[in-house]
Amino acid sequence: MSEPTLPDGVERREIAGEERLATRGEPVYGEPTADGWRAWDPERSKLGGMLELGLETGLTGGETVLYLGAASGTTVSHVADFAGPTYAVEFAPRPARDLLDAAAPRDRLFPLLKDARKPETYAHVVERDVDAVVQDVATRGQAEVAARNARFLADDGRLLLAIKARSEDVTAAPEAVFEGALDRLREAYEIVETRRLDRFHEDHLGVVATPK
Amino acid sequence: MSDTDAGPDASAASDGGEGWFEALPSGATEDTDTESDAAARAAARVREGTAASPADWPVRAVESGFAAGADEYYDRLKAAATRATREAVRERERADDAQLIHAVRAMDDAERTANELAERAVEWAGSLFDEVEPGIEGARAVAAREPESEVERRAVSLAARAAELDDERAELAETIGRTAPAVAPNLSEMAGPELAARLIALAGGLESLAKKPSGTVQVLGAEDALFAHLSGRAPSPKHGIIYTHEYVRGTRPADRGSAARALAGKLTLAARADHYAGERRSQLHADLRERMATIRARADTDEPDAAEADDE
């Protein structure tokens, strides 16, 4: 848990008697707050888990971010708190309704009801050379989704990916699923670091990668 | 940050397509009364536009005069993206489960009332005309007659109402057939639109169906039998409304409990996929087909003792 890896705008704050990851912004999902800081629960957020475990995310604060699989906006609202322009892609209408609420008070968080498997349906909105692509989609073919979205990333940008083993194959061993996904990923990316997120998310692999 | 750095190649835009703001009027030159039209067009472009590859849109927007600077560009993007997403969400949700529940209940009411009215009409008509057939078809035949007296006119008119109500029932069924797959794609594919709508109606909504354990889904619609069982007066029901599914009804009685249990299990997963993810899960359907093939294969080997013995 190396302290320096936290981006600007993400801090460990004492909230409700506990030291917790936090960002500054409007509360979204009933999370505990203190002095304008809102606790970022690593058990509810893959990216929060990656930061808590000390992965080298390369995030420094203020960057442009493409977030795939924004769901109700739990994690992406924290990202928008410390990052610059943040594009939030979500495919299902029900969570997207909550995402709209999370995005409303954040003027550089852009909600998009789009399918992350079809980047051409939002490439006319999302700019190129974003500094980070964050991906948390629970569908089969997660590595394929990441590969297709490599076109948005700057040459020195980072892919921050959480692979959910059960979304690929419920019966196979997670290790085998991760290996297969990483093989596909290597066609478009260079893997910088991988780490199991099991402490917070069972059978998930956190991946940091940079475009080839 | 890539928003304001107008690098040397910033204007050398990729030819992958046009940005969402292109072909839109710039804010500065438009009259105020067309502002809402412009906002609607911008939202439509966000929703419907495509591009093969991204470009440095903020820079291109400023160069083309769409916005004075990156800040103004992002403000306008925020407005357009929010509006586009809100519209798309509303549209996809309008075909929502509450509407489906109304439709399936209205269909049941129309059917029951049509039958009752038809019965009354043909009974009356039977005392006035020769050769009156029973049921809705009988009522349709009566409705086509030329009445020759005051009472005949009333009986024929009543039969016509019954026939119209039956038409309404058919149209409601068609509406359910169109909307159920939009509301619950996996459930509708697995159960058929009508049974999917009935399950959602019995549970009180897609969300509550998604939260029910599969054992409850298995006996939805068999509440009377379930409570008779719970008070010790009857054996436990094997199936509720899902009995209407071919997988249950078309399985030999000895294996129906297994079939109902397998079907209910997958229907529950389908409802959860529909509620929480909203996308098609082909694996789910393949799994059920495989499981049903296994259960039905028991009839070929024909070991009656084994039929109910193993659960999975």
From TrEMBL, chain A:
Enzyme Commission number(s) from the entry: 2.1.1.-
Residues at which S-adenosyl-L-methionine binds: 74-75, 90-91, 115-116, 136-139
Gene3D superfamilies per UniProt: Vaccinia Virus protein VP39
The keyword RNA-binding belongs to this UniProt entry's keyword annotation: yes
Record region (Disordered): 1-37
GO MF term set: histone H2AQ104 methyltransferase activity; RNA binding; rRNA methyltransferase activity
Keywords attached to this entry: Methyltransferase, RNA-binding, rRNA processing, Transferase, tRNA processing
Biased composition (Basic and acidic residues): 9-23
Pfam families assigned to the protein according to its UniProt record, in alphabetical order: Fibrillarin
GO biological process: box C/D sno(s)RNA 3'-end processing; tRNA processing
UniProt record similarity statement: Belongs to the methyltransferase superfamily. Fibrillarin family.
Subunit structure: Interacts with nop5. Component of box C/D small ribonucleoprotein (sRNP) particles that contain rpl7ae, FlpA and nop5, plus a guide RNA.
Function: Involved in pre-rRNA and tRNA processing. Utilizes the methyl donor S-adenosyl-L-methionine to catalyze the site-specific 2'-hydroxyl methylation of ribose moieties in rRNA and tRNA. Site specificity is provided by a guide RNA that base pairs with the substrate. Methylation occurs at a characteristic distance from the sequence involved in base pairing with the guide RNA.
Identification of the protein by name: Fibrillarin-like rRNA/tRNA 2'-O-methyltransferase
Species whose genome carries this gene: Halorubrum ezzemoulense DSM 17463
From TrEMBL, chain B:
Family annotation (PANTHER family): NUCLEOLAR PROTEIN 5 NUCLEOLAR PROTEIN NOP5 NOP58, NUCLEOLAR PROTEIN 56
One GO CC annotation: box C/D methylation guide snoRNP complex
Bias (Low complexity) ranges: 1-15, 37-53
Domain Nop: 183-297
Full protein name: Nucleolar
Gene3D superfamilies, per the entry: Helix hairpin bin (1.10.287.660), Nop domain (1.10.246.90)
InterPro entries cross-referenced by the UniProt entry: Helix_hairpin_bin_sf (IPR029012), Nop56/Nop58 (IPR045056), Nop_C (IPR042239), Nop_dom (IPR002687), Nop_dom_sf (IPR036070)
Keywords attached to this entry: Coiled coil
Annotated region (Disordered), positions in chain: 1-56
Keyword Lipid biosynthesis attached: no
